[in-house]
Amino acid sequence: xxxxxELGRGVRIVLDNDPYEIMETTHMVxxxxxxxxxxKVKNLRTGNLxxxxxxxxxxxxxxxxxxxSLKFLYKNRGQYxxxxxxxxxxxFSFEEQTLNPGVVFLKENxxxxxxxxxxEIINITPPIKVELKxxxxxxxxxxxxxxxxxxxxxLETGAEMDVPLFIKEGDVVEINTETKExxxxx
Length: 186
Fold this sequence. Notes:
Number of strands: 16
Strand content: over 45%
Radius of gyration: 21 Å
Shape: flat
Number of helices: 0
């Protein structure tokens, strides 16, 4: 059990049978010397952020999470299909809205990290940086440089993103999946 004094950034606890990670904390002293902890917690299953208030009399179960290696198989109608790296027969899927937004940059057969909670895979973490080929890119018009300096291209995974005007069809670009930003041309 985790006590009130042990709550801090990065601590994982169980609330309503779901694992949460504490993202930010602020100690507040109420009238008559009663203190509370105002915290922003992230649901590790859904990724939702919540504001919670914890009192010194409360204690919490520690969220026992672990990581496992998974392989991305394919995407179909908003479902992402995965299998265990060491056991390809064990397949499962997630709906797109429940996963990390960076999942749109996954290529087939790419290795990702899965989070286990109570023996169940609850979420996927894609690699932070991926290299993808540009399959559709409008030509960069010389006069456009003064306006925005970027254009919208389609990548081999079907994802669209803004890149600098010098990127052409067939180029390979490196992307940060957490920020969904262009890093460089490879």
